[in-house]
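Observation: inputs received (chain + X2X).
Thought: call the complex predictor directly.
Action: predict_structure
Action Input:
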Amino acid sequence: MKKTLSVLLALMLIASMLAVGLTGCSPQQQQNQQPKEETFKPKAEYNLSVVVGPSFWWGEAAQKFADMVKKDTDGKINIKVYYGGQLFKGKQTNEFQLMSQGVIDFAWGSTINWSPTIPECNIFSLPFFINNYKNLDALENGETGKAVFDAMEKKGVVGLAWAENGFRQVTNSKHEIKEPEDLKGLKLRVVGSPIFIDIFKQLGADPVSMSWGDAVTAFQQGVVDGQENPMGVLIPVKIWQYHKYVTLWNYLVDPVIVGVNKQVWDSFPADIQEIIKKDAIEAARWEKDMCRVGLDDGSALKDLKEHFGETPEITDYIAYLKEQGMDVTLLTDQERQDFINATKPIYDKWIPKIGEDLYQKALKDMGK
Ligand code: X2X
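Observation:
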């Protein structure tokens, strides 16, 4: 009797172990579960790609992000920033692809470098479409931003935060640019995204696409007459060394997106994901503030002072360019309208590529 009872008990024990085995952690479920913190083994180092150098706000912010992540994860997640496009050796338009393939783990990358892979990113490159920070924020925080992140995720990259490069301004060494006519025949360096070639051809200029590294050499050697970039690039690269004329036309804007390869992201336990996302948003907030100082309604400088306890060295970028001897041109409403009219055909060609749906979302986000 005693023997029967112990056999019975043993059988029950086996049965219950089997039940746990079947329902508690089947291999199928294990695959879908996020790694637990105790079992998670981070890579010794994750790489992070930046097109520009460490003295650009975007480059500085990437390092701040890496430092914050290291501290907040008690040294578990170690991110090394590679500047000047070292991870893609040359073509900055390959950055997204390499991140989606897992060659690059993280990147702080401009939408104009990623748009050849993610056509939705061209929504920010429609000329004279966004025009001000209020509209830009509305897109990033609205349906448009969500759609861009969804498109990225389908191609294996998770978007963590919106940082900024900024509204792009045109500079050149020849003469003032006030009307489309002034661009005729000017040889301008643009990025390798096809919409830029279309815009400047449409305006009668002679655009040549080059990656950033080659562009700086081209300015130095005077191989091109001009280029276009935001304040956050014009100032660190000291554009006045090469070009006397700048037109502040805010014709389009490039956000910088903080992205991470999806497999890398999925390998992180939930608490680490939370830290990384929070740090990306915080570093992006600082970087955006730096890009906007003196160019917005005063919010950026206020946030830098109050939230980050910092006052930047230069608080008026326009005055600073003038102090460096640049001839700064602002457009009248009529001059601006002439550029808008001249670039209308770009919409006809590019909205179908970007997606009519996304274009409508963008209009709605901006309240248009
Ligand atoms: O190449 C450029 O013009 C730059 C630095 O702005 C970008 O990477 C988008």
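Thought: report the result.
Final Answer: Residues 1-32 have pLDDT under 50 and may be disordered. The two ends are 85 Å apart (CA to CA).
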